[in-house]
Each structure stands twice: as C-alpha cells, then as structure tokens.
C-alpha cells in the first residue's frame, strides 16, 4: 500500500519507517517505489534491513535522483555488516544526490571502512557521513581519515566509538 502511494505522491519529502517491520517483501516494494518517486528526500529505514534489503536499496540509489538523506542505524536493528556496506558504497559511486548517510551501529568492519574510503575518493555530493559505533578498529579509522585528503565535499565524518 505504502509503495503504491509513494509512486504517485508528489508532496511527501520525509519518511521515517522506524519500528515498522516491513520484511523483505515490503522493503523490495518500497525500494521499487523509489525508482519513480521524485519528491522523497529523506528516508529512515525500518527494522531488520538485511543484505537482501540492502541489495534492493542499492538498486534504488542507482536510479533515484531525489533522495538526499538516508539513515540506516541500529536504533532500528539493522545489520548490514561489511557485505552490505560494500554494496552500499558501490552504489554511491553512481549516486550524485545523497548528501547525508547515517549507517551507525551496523557491524561494519575494516573491509567496509575501506569500501567507504574509495567512495570518499570519488563522491562529490556526500557532505555528512556517520559510520560511528561500527566494528572497524583504529586501522579502519585511519583509512577513512586518509580519504579526507582527497575529498573536498565531506564536511562531517562521524566515526566515534
């Protein structure tokens, strides 16, 4: 139902679905709606986003050109881990509208941090990135900070424990 509304709605700009367990079918429908929605700019992802949900999100981010803020954090029990972080990072190579990305508390390790380092080398729209409270150690923090030497658009990077 919500996905149908999003395909046709021309007013809604922010959607917070926290604590609404959509399941994979609901997530897929929502992400498909993002392919054509031209007004939603801010999305907070619901409960239990797994790697399969991330795959649907990645596809939507490659197509959607209005979403500027995306929040996927453990407050909503998401576990995207490094595999999901790598897929999401890859989508950011092609996405040129996302300005804010919050993926804190998602069990992202050093490999995920390295994937975001590559994004920071090339992405020219991301201004705020919150990777706080993930599972990468000092080495992961180092690679992210190193990326700042080649990035002129990021104005805030949150990587605290």
Automatic annotation (TrEMBL):
Q: Which Gene3D superfamilies match?
A: Ribonuclease Inhibitor
Q: Which SMART domains match?
A: LRR_RI
User: What is the source species?
Assistant: Cetraspora pellucida
Official protein name in the record: 20581_t:CDS:1
Pfam family of this protein, just one?
Answer: LRR_6
The record's section on InterPro entries has: Leu-rich_rpt, LRR-containing, LRR_dom_sf
Q: Which PANTHER family match?
A: F-BOX DOMAIN-CONTAINING PROTEIN-RELATED (PTHR24114:SF2), LEUCINE RICH REPEAT FAMILY PROTEIN (PTHR24114)
């Amino acid at each position: 139902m919500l996905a149908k509304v999003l395909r046709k709605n021309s007013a809604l700009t922010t959607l917070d679905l926290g604590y609404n367990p959509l399941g994979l079918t609901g997530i897929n429908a929502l992400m498909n709606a993002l392919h054509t929605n031209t007004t939603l700019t801010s999305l907070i992802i619901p409960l239990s986003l797994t790697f399969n949900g991330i795959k649907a999100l990645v596809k939507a981010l490659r197509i959607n050109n209005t979403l500027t803020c995306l929040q996927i954090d453990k407050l909503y029990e998401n576990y995207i881990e490094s595999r999901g972080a790598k897929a999401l990072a890859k989508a950011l190579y092609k996405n040129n509208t996302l300005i804010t990305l919050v993926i804190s508390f998602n069990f992202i390790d050093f490999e995920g941090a390295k994937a975001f380092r590559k994004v920071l080398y090339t992405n020219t729209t991301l201004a705020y990135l919150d990777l706080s409270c993930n599972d990468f150690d000092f080495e992961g923090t180092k690679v992210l900070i190193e990326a700042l030497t080649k990035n002129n658009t990021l104005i805030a990077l949150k990587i605290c424990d």
